[in-house]
Amino acid sequence: MINFSLSKKVSIIKSLRVKEFPSFLKDFVSIASALSFRTISQFFSNYFAALWLGPSDFGLWQGLKLILLYAPGLNLGVNNAMYREIPILKGEDEEKNLSKINIIENTSFAFSLAMGAVISFSLIGLSFFFSYRWYLRLIAIAVFLSYLNEFYGYYWRAHKSFQKVSKVESISGIGSLITVGFVYLFRLIGVILGVIIQQILTVFYYIKRSRREFNLFINIRTLLNLIKIGFPISAMVYAYQLFTTVDRLIILKYLGKTALGYYSLGSLAFVPIGMLFTSFNSVVYPRLGELYGKVNKDPKKLKEIVFETIYVLSLIISPLVGFLILFLPLFVKVFLPQYMPGVKAADFLFISLLLISVMGMASMLLLVTNRQMINLLNYLSAAIINGVVSIVIVKFGFGIEGVALGTLVAYFSYFLLTMSCAKKILNLSNLEFFKVVAKILLPIFAITFAVLGLDSFVRLDFRIKIVIILFLSSTFYLKSLKPINTIIKWSD
After folding, report:
1. Is the pLDDT of residue 230 over 50?
2. What is the pTM of this model?
3. Do 297 and 377 touch, CB atoms closer than 8 A?
4. Which pLDDT score is estimated for 216?
5. 6 belongs to a structural domain
6. Number of domains in the chain
């Protein structure tokens, strides 16, 4: 049985040499600070884009942005495989595996460069058949640069060079601020130009600060092995993109670009909180891979750290989402009044994004233990659920609120599917699993009911809701202190 008390952690924690947390904390604070700056910059950039473009053109931009989400995944998962393999090889024996690591890095770099060029020229060719041809041509440039950014980003993260990654995030934030001027001058084209400038600035820094030069030699045997490992991960990334964007695709098809503009309010407002998860997952993933190598690839020794981490994130982040739901109508009324039709849908979307964010550790466990195909099937299953439920609800005339509700159903389904897979990997009993899931979901349900559910029974004053959330927040944060000790002690 999993016990969240400190006494039960000694057996696993003491089996690992505990020295890493100071660097873990340093990396997390560094990248979180940089991401905070980038997030604030992106928020203002997106805010002014939404304000100056209006719901219709802002919705069109959300549609064009899907190309930037999907195109980098066409590298067949080579960079994903590099990101997974390097930490494991270093965890086993870095000196012995150094030559193999170098071959993997060179092959990944050359292949990324080649695929980036192929995809970009393909988009330029396709642009002749569409009315938005200049938008697509500019997007093609951004796609090529994104391939280079993706390679260097994975490379530095695999080697835990988070100080450099933090500087890249800061540079990207500066690029977002520059974008505001381009949006004001050129509107939608200005948004795309701003993305290109961000990519150029970050690629230039990556190249300038890299300690080694990569050659253009592709080791075919290594490439095939990377594709063998990474293609399921790449397919999983595509499935994830489909899973997280099928709601937008449905809105674009059935309700139009203006409705998509309203719906995008939720993802825009969630960005600051999402930044915390991005920071945490970026720092944790390579460490989890190294730890997996150190414990002789025995996933059962990762049991407590996986579930304790998810539990702590649920305790800490749920109240933030509660405040976000509470204050969003006031913010939109003052700063983005034309987006008020998107507020109700945003409430459902916030809960969905919270669910998918807190359980990142379970998803990473599937990747580290080479079960990416299972994760792929989970994403596809949830995407199908999202599509079917959302379309049915839209057909009944419920609009973007119906799509948001369908998305919540799909995200909760993915949560249960992935947690069930983690249960099997970590060899939990049904009772242990039920207790773990209940502990994780309790803060989320409590906050949701306090902010939204109580209104179904009694109308509460706004100030009373604030007091309720503050009380729940203090309770959750106190409960998070003990399990945080496991995370503090975790590592090598």
Report:
1. yes
2. 0.70
3. no
4. 84
5. no
6. 1
